[in-house]
Amino acid sequence: MSKIYSRSITREIRKSFGRFAAIIAIVALGGGFLVGILSSTPDMKATADKYYRDFAMSDYDIKSTLGFTDDDIAALSGIDEIDKIMPGNVMDALVIVGSDNQMSGRIYGLDLDNLTVNRLELKEGRMPDSASECVIESPTSYTEDVKIGDTITVSAENDDVDTTYAHTEFKVVGIVDSPYYFCSNREPSSVGSGRTGVILYTYRDAYKTDVYTDLFILTHNTENAFSEKYESYIEKVTEKIEKVSDARLAARYDEIIDEAMAELQEAKDTLESEKAKAESELDKAQVDLDRGQREYENGLAQLDAAQKELDEAKAQLDAVKPQIDEAKAAQAAGYPLSNEVLAQIAQYDAGIAQWERGTAELQK
Amino acid sequence: MSYVLFRDVCKYYKMGDQTIAAANGVDFEVQQGEFCIIVGPSGAGKTTVLNILGGMDSCDSGIVQLDGRDVSSMSEKELTDYRRHDIGFVFQFYNLVQNLTALENVELASEICKDPLDPAETLKSVGLEDRCSNFPAQLSGGEQQRVSIARALAKNPKLLLCDEPTGALDYNTGKTILKLLQDCCRTMNKTVVVVTHNQALCPMADRVIHIHSGKVASMEVNPDPVPVENIEW
Ligand SMILES: Nc1ncnc2c1ncn2[C@@H]1O[C@H](COP(=O)(O)OP(=O)(O)OP(=O)(O)O)[C@@H](O)[C@H]1O
Ligand SMILES: [Mg+2]
Q: Which residues, in sequence order, are bridge partners of residue A175?
């Protein structure tokens, strides 16, 4: 700006200082107001982002219906951008608060002593000492009125309560805030009314299952969570996670199938061996049976032969019977019999007796 | 080769579905060092022509040249430089900066150009050495117009353009102003173009251009111009 021109401006201002001051004040006010309005959005974004960071809010919550194993965690840890992975079990279940207040509850089974992701901020009470105690998410207008000291019981109406939960009763000992539920919205539930009435955190021991349902993942991201840079960062990491996920899914599927297959194979093997054992026994029995049959047939032949011998003997005896009867009658009439005849009679009787014995034996 | 050259210059204003031809094929030339008067009735297009020549307006077609440079094809930035260094403009209503003294008004113009004349000297040459520190509001119309001429001259321009410089002045003051302009031309050898609707002034010019309805009706070269003191109207 030229010297003379600035002199003109200075004079203009000096001449109408009141107006100048008024205009400056109006502009300053307007400017301040505008700055206030314009900065509120970035301020809010920065504040929310700081909160996320302070409480290590997860960038991802990955869920699996097959369940996660330590192998899955190891595989995901191989992604450079991933900072921390915290496994946990999360299930929606019908719960009863107190004696009869039924609602749907979301039960987090976490390693509460070592929350690396989605850190909880204790607002009231204390953290649980064991899996039979729990803390609950700060109640909002969308949740039910649950207080410290209440007991939350997993309803027996739920499926597989026995196999899923090691603890079914949780005493509320504290109230917490989680960055995961930082906005007070209606939280949809998969059970009951469809609205989550209470969100509770306890130790993972509350669950019996040996696989995790959820992995909470924190990345090395340094961008503001509301920026486009964050979106593209997350997009990039998502691609990598999906790649790992596809591989792990196939592996996990195979694992489960293999397990089932192994069991099936074992059952098949048992079946085979049992069958073989049965067959060999059957074979042995058959052999016995055959031998019996043969023995039977032998016996039958022997019997036939014996019968024949008996019949022959009978025929011989019958042939001599009239002479013997005659001799006996003579004896009865008082005729002395020669020794020779007596001997013949005795021989005959002995033959008859022998025949009868033989017949009787055969009959048997 | 003419110093100033207009070739078939047209300027149209569109007002709704009506087109006004403010300049409709203007052809003329002016030689270096000439005192040139453009006359014509009101609405003929005199101001339009002067504004195009001064780089304050652009033409729709045709060629405008000053000292061999094509003004009609200049970009906005080139036009700014052209106005700043080559043109001195004297307006009908002076257009002085009210917050600056007479001297400062002249300094303001001289500050922005390449090869200015001394502001105080220039004011002296228009006879206002005593009024240097007066603000425009403290000067008469004639004095103000002289300041405005001094301001135009201090830039040491190639061309001095004056649009009705005496329009708001009384007879005698007008005469003084015209004499000043004529003297500038004669003594400083400036090329001066003056727009007026006063036909009586024609004898004082080296060249008179008559404009009627956006066209040059006639152009005369006056081999024997009369000093303005000898003209009465
Ligand atoms: N900005 C504009 N918009 C529309 N029409 C215009 C504009 N400027 C000038 N004109 C028209 O162009 C024509 C020429 O105008 P110009 O100002 O050149 O006339 P003039 O010869 O200077 O007249 P005067 O002697 O009254 O000053 C006039 O009819 C005027 O109405
Ligand atoms: Mg005009």
A: A124, A136
